[in-house]
Amino acid sequence: MSQNFEVQELLIAIALRQQNPSILTTDFLKYTGIVPSEWELARPPVITNTAAQVVFKNGVSIVAEVNRVIFAEAIATKEASEVEIPAIAHKYLQTVKQVSYQGVGINVRGIAPYEQTNFNARNYTFSNLLQPGAWQDFGSAPMEASVRMVYTLDETQLYLDINEAQLQYPDQTTKPAILFSANFSHAITQDEPTARLSAIGVVIDKWQDDVETLKELVNSKFLNNQSYLIDVPQSETPQVVIGAN
């Protein structure tokens, strides 16, 4: 498939006052129905006093920390109806009721790759986002750059990080790319716990709106309809390497 900007990953981060991360086990997730019983682990779970992580073969991972729980999923080749973590996040909220949930953030990560052999991510960053200056010439190698933008969108704060990257393919070939990482921080103003939980649920249900907002922003304001296209076979999903030229 070929397109200008391709969303790679969706992440839902729910802030809470305090929890015991060690509750996050594979048995707990399956016994309570938070995830289907037939899901297979990609690797053994990691459980410590301060954090726990469970990663499944289908690209879904769940991380529990003392003050937040994070649901992440690789969605590059999925239709919206196939994305799992919004429903999983809802089930977690309905199951783990003994903690005080505080807020929610929707994070979206995507890439804009380049087919041109004489173009790299650094060209884009320094030609389009930064003012040329002597500050660029220092050290024994070309400097690398990352940029953070902050946008106010109605009741949502959008933090957008832009980084140079390389796409590394299974055949060891690489292509330059720009990595766009967005955090949509949604204000949860309700004081009453049930109302706050309901508001968090509404934000989760509207995750597609945030994805579309990021697509519109990147394609219309950063790529400017230029033909930054790449043909990526679905069977050869590349690995994103940040900060490589």
Structure description:
By secondary structure, the chain is α+β, with helices and mostly antiparallel strands. The chain has a domain at 6-14 and 105-192 and 207-242. The chain is built from five helices and ten strands. Strands 1, 2, 3, 4, 5, 6, 7, 8, 9 and 10 form a ten-stranded antiparallel beta sheet that branches. Strand 7 (146-153) and strand 8 form a beta hairpin. Helix 2 (85-95) runs antiparallel to helix 4.
Strand content: 25-35%
Helix-strand makeup class: alpha+beta
Q: Element order, helices and strands? A: EHEEEEHEHEEEHHE
Uncertain runs are 225-237
Major sheet size, sense and barrel closure: 10 strands, antiparallel
The overall pLDDT, averaged over residues, is 84
Helix tally? 5
Topology (SSEs and partners):
Layout: E1 6-16, H1 26-31, E2 46-47, E3 51-55, E4 60-65, E5 68-74, H2 85-95, E6 101-113, H3 121-129, E7 146-153, E8 156-168, E9 174-186, H4 193-205, H5 207-222, E10 239-242
Antiparallel strand pairs: 1-5, 1-6, 2-3, 3-4, 4-5, 6-9, 7-8, 8-9, 8-10
Helix pairs in contact: 2-4
